[in-house]
Specification:
Chain lengths: ~500, ~100
């Protein structure tokens, strides 16, 4: 936590450099059919109060009974975070009043959480990797939802979400920039999606972040932090960190001090605002929930769950680097989604794996991002992309022609090998044909020949001319060789 | 351990119980009487004793993850003082 500050991460203020310190609490909705303590459905988007049991509505005399799948999902997540799994944990009541919390308290795990310390390894850029410590993960209930725009004088309350299981994943204050904050949430989301313990859908609120931001002079102890509540997109998380850090720096540089408080990020205005009304409620008066016994299981239970887990992103990434010889960051990009990793493996198997990685990341992902498509909706299949890579490897087409071919396959579909035949896209490696083209160009441009002989970098102009004449199908290496020998350079 | 009048007012507010200024001294006295009564427990040496979570040695019951229960929206809001389209309707609360 007090490692020397990385100079490239510091923010320049009017009076010197500042370091940003961020810790996050991520609320991840557990993937389960029914709620944490009741048998009501967790389906998103039902009619108001249609997925509510009398337990969720907190009717008198109703008692909570724990959902075993939610326990398993929390343990699986703990394993995915390389964290300590606590065989005994307890539930506490967190007391506060709000209309969408019918119990008057949230059942949470305050004193002893189900999962303890762990780590998440995050690739921030192609050359920078950080490790973010996990403080704890605990199970808790979600609240209902209040709508404030249905009437000028009233709020409308829907309890469909009330009692849905959440995992609150608390990081250590190990994050040092907006970029790192975004990369951390992205990685955490990837892990949860691989595990199948949370769908990671931020639009539907399955993943929300409370972001704790403070600033300090490099080398000093932690500054006073502000908590920015309920940020619901990865982009907004980055923006919230930046604006909040700058707000705090401005105050400190004017000789002021930071009030520890809860704030709200307003993306439209690009600012954070104080939520003063939340302050007093901070006295939650936690106490053990007398309706629930301790949550206990043995090591065999944990091992059984560990055996059932799929290959996780870090292991898959390590395997890609080892088996396919691709760079760390590229491997990270490929394993970010399971579907992308599967697609890449289908293209790479039995082929030049590095070339396959380039084509999947640069051409395919680039194009999918531009069009806003998911990998599942890719118009180019793994088999088609594999065929394009094969055609390059076999020297049938050049890399440049391959891009044209990719374009055709993307828009029209078809078998790449057949397309190359029918559209005459084959690369010309026949030296006779290339020589003829070179001779014609040399004969027509004696002035350029003289220039090129004086200045060999002029060779590029000749290569361009030959390519033009052969419709881009000449093998670039052969063209270079023939030109050099004919021009005597 | 004892509470002062400010603490009494704060606890009342957190619990959303309306307490008039006249009631505060009386409540303070009652709470302090309870606290001093409970204080006697601290005379017992509990060094090394596990906190008790249940009077009977039993494990928590777990349920299978199945949708087995929905009351029906009309039943859920049946006792609400005000409801509309099966929403609970409450005085406006907004940040």
């Amino acid at each position: 936590m007090n490692a020397p500050a990385n100079p490239s991460k510091l923010i320049k203020g009017a009076t010197g450099d500042w370091e940003i310190v961020v810790g996050m609490e991520i609320h991840a909705q557990v993937s389960s059919h029914s709620k944490l303590f009741s048998g009501a459905s967790t389906d998103f988007g039902g009619d108001p109060n249609s997925h509510v049991s009398l337990v969720d509505a907190a009717m008198p005399g109703m008692l909570p009974v724990i959902n075993e799948e939610c326990v398993k999902q929390a343990v699986r997540t703990g394993i995915g975070l390389k964290a300590q799994i606590n065989h005994r944990s307890t539930f506490d009541r967190k007391n506060y009043f709000y209309p969408d919390l019918p119990q008057g308290y949230q059942i949470s795990q305050f004193k002893s959480p189900i999962v303890g310390e762990g780590v998440v390894i995050v690739d921030v850029t192609p050359t920078e990797q950080i490790t973010v410590g996990i403080e704890r993960l605990h199970l808790e209930q979600d609240a209902g939802k209040s709508l404030h725009d249905q009437s000028p004088t009233d709020s409308f309350v829907d309890l469909n979400r009330s009692g849905v299981a959440l995992m609150e994943i608390v990081s250590k204050p190990d994050i040092r920039s907006a970029e790192e904050a975004r990369a951390y949430v992205t990685k955490l989301r990837t892990i949860l999606r691989y595990l199948g313990t949370c769908d990671g859908n931020m639009e539907q609120g399955s993943l929300r972040a409370d972001v704790n931001v403070s600033v300090r002079r490099p080398g000093e102890g932690l500054g006073t932090r502000c908590e920015i509540k309920n940020v619901n997109s990865i982009r907004f998380i980055g923006q919230a960190v930046d604006v909040e850090a700058r707000r705090q720096i401005a105050i400190l540089e004017d000789g002021g001090s930071i009030d520890q408080e809860t704030r709200l990020f307003d993306p439209a205005r690009g600012e954070t605002r104080s939520m003063r009304s939340k302050e007093e409620a901070h006295d939650y008066r936690y106490f053990p929930d007398p309706d629930l016994l301790p949550l206990e299981f043995d090591e065999a239970f944990v091992e059984e769950l560990a055996r059932g887990l799929p290959e996780l992103p870090d292991e898959k990434k390590a395997r890609f680097m080892r088996d396919y010889g691709i760079a760390s960051y590229d491997a990270g990009v490929l394993v970010a989604e399971r579907a992308s990793a599967d697609f890449y493996e289908a293209v790479a198997t039995g082929r030049d794996a590095k070339m396959a990685a380039n084509w999947v990341i640069n051409e395919l992902f680039g194009r999918l991002n531009k069009e806003g498509f998911d990998i599942a909706a890719s118009p180019v299949s793994a088999a088609q992309l594999g065929a394009i890579v094969d055609l390059i490897s076999e020297g049938v087409i050049s890399g440049k022609i391959a891009k044209d071919l990719f374009e055709i396959v993307w828009t029209e579909g078809g078998d790449p090998r057949a397309l190359v035949e029918t559209r005459g896209m084959k690369q010309v490696t026949d030296t006779g044909a290339i020589e003829a083209a070179v001779d014609a160009i040399i004969a027509a441009n004696p002035d350029k020949v003289a220039q090129a002989q004086a200045k060999p970098t002029m060779l590029g102009w000749f290569v361009g001319q030959v390519m033009k004449q052969t419709g881009g199908k000449a093998n670039p290496q052969s063209v270079n060789d023939v030109l050099k020998s004919k021009l005597g350079i | 351990m004892s509470v002062d009048q400010a603490t009494v007012r704060r606890i009342a507010h957190l619990a959303r119980i309306a307490v008039s200024p006249e009631e505060v001294p009386h409540l303070q006295q009652e709470l302090n009487a309870i606290l001093s009564f409970v204080e006697e427990l601290s005379a017992v040496d509990v060094e090394g004793v596990e906190p008790m979570t249940s009077v009977v040695p039993m494990k928590m019951v777990w349920r299978k993850d199945a949708v087995t229960d929905h009351a029906g929206a009309d039943v859920v809001v049946a006792n609400a003082p005000v409801s509309e389209d099966n929403f609970f309707v409450v005085p406006k609360v907004v940040e």
